[in-house]
């Protein structure tokens, strides 16, 4: 009985003092209360994120583990772990009385713990119970040095021995065990320390790993090579003592260095250690928002790091390299200004690339912000005001209303819109003191195409007044635009067409990609497939596309923006190759941010250069590519980044053309205007209203051959016609027959709401 009690004490690691209260009744009650079956803990497996071509982007893991079958573990490794941890493993049941007695005697004679009494089965149970624990309290209960916990552990060990064979238990143990330095399971340990598979382990390597499980931190060879070697040598000598290996094998292994530092593979976990940290973090945010992985972001995050998922993304390493190369050519991480660009595939929404000038980290020239995405995502910066790139959506609204591409509006360099009403989805809006100006040389009486080429502010403000702000708001919302900082819809204010709110490169790229796809808007798509640990495909959102503009409307937008990149347009210097290209510049007030957004039928991109450090200042005087900027514009600053990235990204793609707009789109859905030149303005106004148009008389007079005080002309002109119900402006003659061209002011304009303004180059 004394021997049995001693063995039990050693085997269960119960302090002798505790035996006084450890009665047979308590033992019986504990054993009876425990379940007769042990529920196996699911292995926490690492998940991996891959690029479209199979390149590893990141490893996500709570425990870096790759489970393997016992047949995939070298026999010498199996022998080594059994020799040092439980040499009678294949001979005893859940409790090894002989082994525990030997351990007790050895420990007592040495005055310290030299050998453990727990069997491999008991160790497997203990690790499993710790793995199952979800709270610190549960972990403490699973590791408490009490006889109740030890007895429970033994009962579970008995259940395990009934449920599984010895080889199955050994396999589970080797896959579950912690081998130190972030390596969990035998396969990951072999890969980490020796750059080999578990099936290729040598005697010296196997002995080192077998010695680690007793104290993964203390015997970690990357921290203390000497302690690791001493422990390894203990394992080798034990194997020799048990006649598992020969003397010559032992001597050879003892002379082998414990590790080769050059072959140690760092356990680089998380997006920060991958090649594309910002893109990766955006993917992880998308995963964490998926309710299929957890009710909360925390639950989803835990699942993603432990489920052994294989996640394939849309990132194209070649196009990503093109984008990053362009960024690196035109900017530096240490610049005051930041540069960013996103590239998306029209018709699918596949996000091919996402690059920026500042690298990931917390040192100088580094950041944790992703300047391409909104604040609703982890690390998302929240965008910038987009300036005149917003005019594309006004163009779409005008074409949708039936206005012709040659629709003319008299567009002086300065226009007084103070108190002028603009219709909204809720009613009307106006600004009390608003006299916007142009910032480029313009045609005095431009068509829609000419106004787009020169980015004429006064034209588009009047055009938005005619289309109404509601249609612009609805089109932009359907194309994925909203305030990327607040999540609110874009503001419907008089200066809306000049780019009032904060939008990200990703949003703007996806919106412009819809024009390239003839009105098909696709939600940005990054995660193309997910497989579980068994290789089975999991349900995941695919391409999410919807026709939000009629194809003929998008064709009209393409025709207008294509001319921006032709001779005379602000983007003409950015034209390259043989494919049709379209684009639009954008510069906000005081040039605090400048944009170029453009596309072919195959790829779309939006590039931005901006001050990203509040309080925001104009870019002029800030450094870009190591030099202070003397000027900042969409075409001259952001444009070259767009051009270089797209030129490289489109290599290998076939030559493409936009679908030509229909004659109805070109001419517009117009009806004839009555001829009112030379009439009294009031009579002309009534005649226009009777014909189904709205009419207004412009203030002041203009030079004309018509008699003073009569109608000089209308806008739109009588020869061009106008959509039914549209506003026709009547200009009154001063009787001066000599024509005069309006002046061309060069200043940008502060918006009426006092917020950071918009520009138009």
From TrEMBL:
The catalytic activity, as recorded, is:
Preferential cleavage: (Ac)2-L-Lys-D-Ala-|-D-Ala. Also transpeptidation of peptidyl-alanyl moieties that are N-acyl substituents of D-alanine; [GlcNAc-(1->4)-Mur2Ac(oyl-L-Ala-gamma-D-Glu-L-Lys-D-Ala-D-Ala)](n)-di-trans,octa-cis-undecaprenyl diphosphate + beta-D-GlcNAc-(1->4)-Mur2Ac(oyl-L-Ala-gamma-D-Glu-L-Lys-D-Ala-D-Ala)-di-trans,octa-cis-undecaprenyl diphosphate = [GlcNAc-(1->4)-Mur2Ac(oyl-L-Ala-gamma-D-Glu-L-Lys-D-Ala-D-Ala)](n+1)-di-trans,octa-cis-undecaprenyl diphosphate + di-trans,octa-cis-undecaprenyl diphosphate + H(+)
Alphabetized Pfam families for the sequence = PASTA, Transgly, Transpeptidase
Q: Which UniProt keywords apply?
A: Carboxypeptidase, Cell shape, Cell wall biogenesis/degradation, Glycosyltransferase, Hydrolase, Multifunctional enzyme, Peptidoglycan synthesis, Protease, Signal, Transferase
Check the record and name the PROSITE patterns matching this protein. Answer: PASTA
Give me the stretches of Polar residues compositional bias.
731-751
Q: What GO molecular functions are on record for this protein?
A: penicillin binding; peptidoglycan glycosyltransferase activity; serine-type D-Ala-D-Ala carboxypeptidase activity
Which residue numbers delimit the PASTA domain?
A: 668-734
Can you name a GO cellular component term?
outer membrane-bounded periplasmic space
Superkingdom of the source?
Bacteria
Give me the ranges of the annotated region Disordered.
708-761
Instruction: Extract the InterPro entries matched here.
Output: Beta-lactam/transpept-like, Glyco_trans_51, Glycosyltr_51/Transpeptidase, Lysozyme-like_dom_sf, PASTA_dom, PBP_transglycosylase, PCN-bd_Tpept
Signal sequence annotation: 1-20
One of the GO BP terms on file = cell wall organization
What is the similarity comment for this entry?
A: In the C-terminal section; belongs to the transpeptidase family. In the N-terminal section; belongs to the glycosyltransferase 51 family.
What name goes with this protein?
A: Membrane peptidoglycan carboxypeptidase
